[in-house]
Amino acid sequence: MGTTETGQLCIPRAAAGRTALLLVNVGTALTEVADERLAAAKLDGREYAILSILDSDGPGSQQELARLLGKAPAIVVAAVDALEARGLVARTRDPSDRRRSRVTLTTAGARTLRKADALADDAVAELLAGLDAEALQDLRDLLTRGIGPLIASPAASPPG
């Protein structure tokens, strides 16, 4: 994926009809615009992902977050520190293992996540401007169904 002379994102014609290349290029494009778009919610892409995981996958340790994000634990700890300082997440001791901290979404974090979700949806709609709202929903449903076995995998879910 590249940009035009005016700085607009562009995807090579070679991606047309090649699902893997289309998905990779769309993912790259979303990554490139994510921080810019999410700035209105005062988040970056990594912070948005953390809030989303905490909302959907439940309270988890920083280690579990790192595994789900595919990032080094030190990177996740720094992001959680920043989110905690802004009151978007809270750390509490795990009652079953006092050495572990659990990370949970706060009410302010849930509000920020809703705003970020709307911003992300707008970015997707703008990036995929050739699709109407119904087609975007169909795409979301197809992608969710297609990767459903990965989402439902016990390896993908943090221990409760």
How does this structure look, described?
- The chain is elongated.
- The chain has seven helices and four strands.
- Helix content is 59%, strand content 12%.
- The strands form two sheets. The chain has a two-stranded antiparallel sheet. A two-stranded antiparallel sheet has the order 3-4.
- β3 and β4 form a beta hairpin.
- The model is unreliable at 154-160 (pLDDT under 50).
- α1 (19-38) packs across α5 (107-127) and α2 packs across α5 (107-127).
- The protein has helices at 19-38, 45-57, 62-69, 73-85, 107-127, 133-146, 148-152; strands spanning 2-3, 9-10, 89-94, 97-105.
- The longest helix is centred in the C-terminal third of the chain and has 21 residues, at 107-127.
- It has 160 residues and is mainly alpha-helical.
- It has a single domain (2-137), classed as Arc Repressor Mutant, subunit A (Orthogonal Bundle), CATH 1.10.10.10.
The run of helices and strands is EEHHHHEEHHH
CATH architecture: Orthogonal Bundle
The number of E-state strands comes to: 4
In spatial order, strands of the major sheet run: 1-2
Instruction: Please write the CATH class name.
Output: Mainly Alpha
Quaternary: single chain
* Percent of residues in helices: 55-70%
CATH superfamily: Winged helix-like DNA-binding domain superfamily/Winged helix DNA-binding domain
Mean pLDDT comes to 86
Uncertain segments of ≥5 residues (pLDDT<50)? 154-160
